[in-house]
Amino acid sequence: MVDSDKSKKTNSTEQNQQRVQRALAPFEDSLIEQLPTAEQIIHRALARQKQKQQHKHLLLLAGLGSVLGVLWLNPSYDQKVFSTRIGEQKQFELTDGSRIQLNTQTQLIVTTHLRSSEFKLLQGEASFTVKHTAWHSVAPWLKRSFVVWAKDVKIEDIGTVFNVRCEPNGTDLQISVSEGQVRISSAQQNIDLYQGQSLYRQHDQWFKPSHANIAQLTSWQTGSYQFMDQPLVEVIDELNRYGNLSVEFRDHHVEQLRITGEVKLKHRKQFMQDLEKFAPVKVTAQDQGGFMIASRP
What are phi and psi of 164, to 5 degrees? Predict the structure, then answer.
Protein backbone atom coordinates (compact mmCIF):
# COMPACT_ATOMS: atom_id res chain seq x y z
CA MET A 1 0.00 0.00 0.00
CA VAL A 2 2.89 2.35 0.86
CA ASP A 3 4.72 1.53 -2.41
CA SER A 4 1.54 2.28 -4.37
CA ASP A 5 1.25 5.73 -2.73
CA LYS A 6 4.90 6.53 -3.55
CA SER A 7 4.37 5.53 -7.19
CA LYS A 8 1.33 7.77 -7.45
CA LYS A 9 3.25 10.74 -6.01
CA THR A 10 6.16 10.15 -8.45
CA ASN A 11 3.79 10.02 -11.43
CA SER A 12 2.05 13.18 -10.24
CA THR A 13 5.42 15.02 -9.93
CA GLU A 14 6.51 13.96 -13.42
CA GLN A 15 3.18 15.06 -14.87
CA ASN A 16 3.54 18.47 -13.21
CA GLN A 17 7.10 18.87 -14.61
CA GLN A 18 5.86 17.98 -18.08
CA ARG A 19 3.05 20.57 -17.85
CA VAL A 20 5.57 23.23 -16.77
CA GLN A 21 7.93 22.32 -19.64
CA ARG A 22 5.05 22.52 -22.16
CA ALA A 23 4.03 25.91 -20.70
CA LEU A 24 7.60 27.28 -20.95
CA ALA A 25 8.37 25.84 -24.36
CA PRO A 26 7.22 28.94 -26.30
CA PHE A 27 9.56 31.11 -24.14
CA GLU A 28 12.61 28.80 -24.16
CA ASP A 29 14.63 30.78 -26.70
CA SER A 30 14.00 34.08 -24.91
CA LEU A 31 15.04 32.63 -21.56
CA ILE A 32 18.22 31.15 -22.99
CA GLU A 33 19.15 34.56 -24.40
CA GLN A 34 18.92 36.04 -20.87
CA LEU A 35 21.33 33.48 -19.41
CA PRO A 36 25.08 34.35 -19.45
CA THR A 37 27.43 32.31 -21.58
CA ALA A 38 30.24 30.24 -20.11
CA GLU A 39 32.76 32.91 -21.17
CA GLN A 40 30.69 35.60 -19.42
CA ILE A 41 30.51 33.54 -16.23
CA ILE A 42 34.30 33.05 -16.23
CA HIS A 43 34.89 36.78 -16.95
CA ARG A 44 32.60 37.85 -14.13
CA ALA A 45 34.29 35.45 -11.71
CA LEU A 46 37.72 36.81 -12.63
CA ALA A 47 36.45 40.38 -12.25
CA ARG A 48 35.08 39.63 -8.77
CA GLN A 49 38.42 38.05 -7.79
CA LYS A 50 40.33 41.09 -9.08
CA GLN A 51 37.99 43.41 -7.20
CA LYS A 52 38.65 41.54 -3.96
CA GLN A 53 42.43 41.82 -4.53
CA GLN A 54 42.13 45.54 -5.23
CA HIS A 55 40.14 45.95 -2.02
CA LYS A 56 42.89 44.18 -0.05
CA HIS A 57 45.51 46.42 -1.68
CA LEU A 58 43.50 49.52 -0.80
CA LEU A 59 43.26 48.39 2.83
CA LEU A 60 47.01 47.74 2.87
CA LEU A 61 47.75 51.17 1.36
CA ALA A 62 45.38 52.82 3.83
CA GLY A 63 47.18 51.12 6.72
CA LEU A 64 50.57 52.10 5.34
CA GLY A 65 49.35 55.67 4.82
CA SER A 66 48.19 55.83 8.44
CA VAL A 67 51.59 54.67 9.69
CA LEU A 68 53.43 57.17 7.48
CA GLY A 69 51.03 59.89 8.58
CA VAL A 70 51.78 59.23 12.25
CA LEU A 71 55.53 59.23 11.53
CA TRP A 72 55.22 62.53 9.65
CA LEU A 73 53.15 64.15 12.42
CA ASN A 74 55.76 62.93 14.96
CA PRO A 75 53.43 63.14 17.99
CA SER A 76 54.82 63.63 21.49
CA TYR A 77 54.17 61.05 24.19
CA ASP A 78 56.16 62.30 27.19
CA GLN A 79 57.20 65.64 28.69
CA LYS A 80 59.33 66.51 31.72
CA VAL A 81 60.59 69.74 33.30
CA PHE A 82 64.15 69.82 34.69
CA SER A 83 65.25 72.78 36.81
CA THR A 84 67.83 74.03 39.28
CA ARG A 85 67.77 76.73 41.92
CA ILE A 86 70.37 79.48 42.40
CA GLY A 87 73.72 77.87 43.17
CA GLU A 88 72.43 74.37 42.34
CA GLN A 89 73.70 72.03 39.60
CA LYS A 90 72.13 68.76 38.48
CA GLN A 91 72.75 65.97 35.99
CA PHE A 92 70.08 63.84 34.31
CA GLU A 93 70.32 60.75 32.11
CA LEU A 94 67.70 60.11 29.42
CA THR A 95 66.32 56.70 28.44
CA ASP A 96 68.54 56.57 25.34
CA GLY A 97 71.70 57.12 27.42
CA SER A 98 72.12 60.82 26.58
CA ARG A 99 73.08 63.08 29.51
CA ILE A 100 72.05 66.62 30.42
CA GLN A 101 73.85 68.76 32.98
CA LEU A 102 72.16 71.91 34.27
CA ASN A 103 73.97 74.90 35.70
CA THR A 104 72.63 77.32 38.29
CA GLN A 105 69.07 78.74 37.98
CA THR A 106 68.20 76.80 34.83
CA GLN A 107 64.85 75.60 33.50
CA LEU A 108 64.58 73.04 30.69
CA ILE A 109 61.51 71.37 29.18
CA VAL A 110 62.17 67.92 27.67
CA THR A 111 59.61 66.58 25.17
CA THR A 112 59.94 63.08 23.71
CA HIS A 113 58.38 62.56 20.29
CA LEU A 114 57.92 59.38 18.28
CA ARG A 115 61.05 59.99 16.24
CA SER A 116 62.76 62.94 17.93
CA SER A 117 63.72 64.47 21.27
CA GLU A 118 63.15 68.20 21.78
CA PHE A 119 64.53 70.44 24.52
CA LYS A 120 63.43 73.99 25.29
CA LEU A 121 65.92 75.98 27.38
CA LEU A 122 63.81 78.65 29.03
CA GLN A 123 66.65 80.13 31.09
CA GLY A 124 70.10 79.35 32.40
CA GLU A 125 72.76 77.03 31.02
CA ALA A 126 72.85 73.37 30.03
CA SER A 127 75.34 70.92 28.57
CA PHE A 128 74.17 68.07 26.34
CA THR A 129 76.06 64.81 25.79
CA VAL A 130 74.20 62.94 23.07
CA LYS A 131 74.26 59.14 22.90
CA HIS A 132 74.18 57.99 19.28
CA THR A 133 73.03 54.63 17.97
CA ALA A 134 75.47 52.10 16.51
CA TRP A 135 74.32 52.88 12.97
CA HIS A 136 74.57 56.67 13.37
CA SER A 137 77.60 57.06 11.08
CA VAL A 138 76.27 54.58 8.49
CA ALA A 139 72.61 55.60 8.34
CA PRO A 140 72.16 58.93 10.16
CA TRP A 141 68.63 59.36 8.78
CA LEU A 142 67.47 56.46 10.99
CA LYS A 143 68.49 58.12 14.25
CA ARG A 144 66.16 59.98 16.60
CA SER A 145 66.82 63.69 16.05
CA PHE A 146 68.04 65.73 19.05
CA VAL A 147 66.98 69.39 18.93
CA VAL A 148 67.50 72.16 21.48
CA TRP A 149 65.57 75.43 21.33
CA ALA A 150 67.13 78.45 23.06
CA LYS A 151 64.77 81.40 22.70
CA ASP A 152 64.09 81.56 18.93
CA VAL A 153 67.22 79.62 17.96
CA LYS A 154 67.16 75.96 16.91
CA ILE A 155 70.26 73.87 17.68
CA GLU A 156 70.33 70.42 16.11
CA ASP A 157 72.84 67.83 17.24
CA ILE A 158 75.07 66.28 14.57
CA GLY A 159 78.01 65.41 16.83
CA THR A 160 78.15 64.62 20.52
CA VAL A 161 78.72 67.28 23.21
CA PHE A 162 77.67 70.94 23.25
CA ASN A 163 76.81 73.69 25.72
CA VAL A 164 74.06 76.34 25.52
CA ARG A 165 73.72 79.39 27.74
CA CYS A 166 70.79 81.83 27.77
CA GLU A 167 71.45 85.17 29.41
CA PRO A 168 68.78 86.65 31.73
CA ASN A 169 68.05 89.58 29.38
CA GLY A 170 66.09 87.21 27.10
CA THR A 171 68.07 87.79 23.89
CA ASP A 172 71.76 87.04 24.50
CA LEU A 173 72.98 83.47 24.25
CA GLN A 174 76.17 81.49 23.71
CA ILE A 175 76.64 78.08 22.08
CA SER A 176 79.88 76.11 22.29
CA VAL A 177 80.82 72.67 20.96
CA SER A 178 83.11 70.35 22.95
CA GLU A 179 82.86 67.40 20.56
CA GLY A 180 81.35 66.84 17.14
CA GLN A 181 79.10 69.35 15.43
CA VAL A 182 75.77 71.17 15.75
CA ARG A 183 73.56 72.94 13.23
CA ILE A 184 72.15 76.32 14.30
CA SER A 185 69.05 77.81 12.67
CA SER A 186 67.47 81.19 13.35
CA ALA A 187 65.68 83.94 11.50
CA GLN A 188 69.03 85.69 10.94
CA GLN A 189 71.23 82.80 9.85
CA ASN A 190 71.84 79.05 9.43
CA ILE A 191 75.30 77.82 10.32
CA ASP A 192 77.19 74.70 11.41
CA LEU A 193 79.38 74.95 14.49
CA TYR A 194 82.28 72.53 14.97
CA GLN A 195 84.37 71.16 17.81
CA GLY A 196 86.26 73.88 19.68
CA GLN A 197 84.09 76.69 18.30
CA SER A 198 81.78 79.08 20.08
CA LEU A 199 79.03 81.34 18.76
CA TYR A 200 77.63 84.37 20.60
CA ARG A 201 74.53 86.50 20.07
CA GLN A 202 74.20 89.85 21.81
CA HIS A 203 71.13 92.08 21.49
CA ASP A 204 69.89 90.02 18.49
CA GLN A 205 73.24 90.48 16.71
CA TRP A 206 75.29 87.39 15.88
CA PHE A 207 79.07 87.42 16.06
CA LYS A 208 81.18 85.22 13.82
CA PRO A 209 82.03 81.71 15.09
CA SER A 210 85.38 81.71 16.86
CA HIS A 211 87.73 79.21 18.42
CA ALA A 212 87.23 79.32 22.16
CA ASN A 213 88.64 77.92 25.35
CA ILE A 214 85.92 75.30 25.77
CA ALA A 215 87.41 74.05 29.04
CA GLN A 216 87.03 77.56 30.44
CA LEU A 217 83.48 77.99 29.15
CA THR A 218 82.37 74.65 30.59
CA SER A 219 84.44 74.67 33.81
CA TRP A 220 81.17 75.01 35.76
CA GLN A 221 80.56 71.32 35.02
CA THR A 222 83.38 70.42 37.39
CA GLY A 223 82.31 72.93 40.05
CA SER A 224 84.71 75.71 39.07
CA TYR A 225 84.75 79.05 37.31
CA GLN A 226 87.84 79.89 35.25
CA PHE A 227 88.56 83.44 34.13
CA MET A 228 91.41 84.73 32.01
CA ASP A 229 92.28 88.42 31.70
CA GLN A 230 88.68 89.46 32.44
CA PRO A 231 87.46 92.65 34.14
CA LEU A 232 86.85 92.13 37.85
CA VAL A 233 83.26 93.33 37.52
CA GLU A 234 82.55 90.52 35.00
CA VAL A 235 84.06 87.94 37.32
CA ILE A 236 81.89 89.14 40.20
CA ASP A 237 78.78 89.14 37.98
CA GLU A 238 79.47 85.53 37.05
CA LEU A 239 79.95 84.49 40.66
CA ASN A 240 76.69 86.22 41.56
CA ARG A 241 74.86 83.71 39.34
CA TYR A 242 75.45 81.15 42.08
CA GLY A 243 74.28 83.42 44.89
CA ASN A 244 74.49 87.15 45.48
CA LEU A 245 77.78 88.20 47.11
CA SER A 246 76.57 91.80 47.65
CA VAL A 247 79.73 93.38 46.25
CA GLU A 248 80.16 97.15 45.93
CA PHE A 249 82.97 98.85 43.97
CA ARG A 250 84.52 102.05 45.27
CA ASP A 251 85.30 103.36 41.76
CA HIS A 252 85.10 102.49 38.07
CA HIS A 253 88.84 101.86 37.82
CA VAL A 254 88.72 98.86 40.15
CA GLU A 255 85.73 97.44 38.24
CA GLN A 256 87.80 97.27 35.06
CA LEU A 257 90.84 95.73 36.71
CA ARG A 258 91.69 92.60 34.69
CA ILE A 259 92.43 89.38 36.56
CA THR A 260 93.14 85.70 35.81
CA GLY A 261 92.41 82.72 38.03
CA GLU A 262 89.98 79.98 39.08
CA VAL A 263 87.31 79.85 41.77
CA LYS A 264 85.65 76.83 43.33
CA LEU A 265 81.98 77.71 43.18
CA LYS A 266 81.35 76.39 46.67
CA HIS A 267 84.09 78.69 48.02
CA ARG A 268 83.10 82.01 46.46
CA LYS A 269 83.27 83.93 49.74
CA GLN A 270 86.73 82.54 50.36
CA PHE A 271 87.71 83.90 46.95
CA MET A 272 86.56 87.37 48.04
CA GLN A 273 88.71 87.13 51.15
CA ASP A 274 91.73 85.99 49.10
CA LEU A 275 91.28 88.53 46.30
CA GLU A 276 93.83 90.90 47.83
CA LYS A 277 96.54 88.22 47.46
CA PHE A 278 96.59 88.30 43.66
CA ALA A 279 95.01 91.65 42.74
CA PRO A 280 95.96 95.24 43.71
CA VAL A 281 92.73 95.83 45.63
CA LYS A 282 91.51 96.33 49.19
CA VAL A 283 88.53 94.14 50.17
CA THR A 284 86.49 95.13 53.22
CA ALA A 285 83.86 92.87 54.71
CA GLN A 286 80.65 94.80 55.40
CA ASP A 287 78.62 94.45 58.59
CA GLN A 288 75.57 93.33 56.60
CA GLY A 289 77.55 90.50 55.03
CA GLY A 290 78.65 91.99 51.72
CA PHE A 291 82.03 93.24 50.46
CA MET A 292 83.45 96.62 49.45
CA ILE A 293 86.29 96.56 46.86
CA ALA A 294 88.56 99.55 46.43
CA SER A 295 91.92 100.21 44.77
CA ARG A 296 94.87 99.47 47.00
CA PRO A 297 96.52 102.68 48.27
Answer: -130, 135
> CA 134, CA 260: separation in Å to the nearest integer?
43
Write down the domain spans for the chain: 2-73, 76-216, 223-295
Query: Which residue type sits at 7?
Result: S
Q: How many CB atoms lie within 10 A of CB 102?
A: 21
What are the tens digits of pLDDT across the range 116-148? 889 999 999 999 999 876 655 555 555 678 999
The torsion angles phi and psi of 142, rounded to 5 degrees, stand at -85, -10
CATH topology for the 76-216 domain = Jelly Rolls (2.60.120)
Write down the pLDDT at residue 141: 53
The domain 223-295 having CATH identifier 3.40.50.880: the answer here is no
For residue 70, what pLDDT is reported? 44
> Strand 153-157 vs strand 145-150: parallel, antiparallel, or unpaired?
antiparallel
Query: Which residue, among 171, 174, 244, has the nearest Cα to 216 in the 3D structure?
Result: 174
**pTM exceeds 0.85, yes or no:** no
Task: Please state whether beta strands 161-166 and 173-179 pair in parallel, antiparallel, or not at all (unpaired).
Answer: antiparallel
Choose the most confident range, by mean pLDDT, from 47-56, 233-242, 283-292.
Answer: 233-242
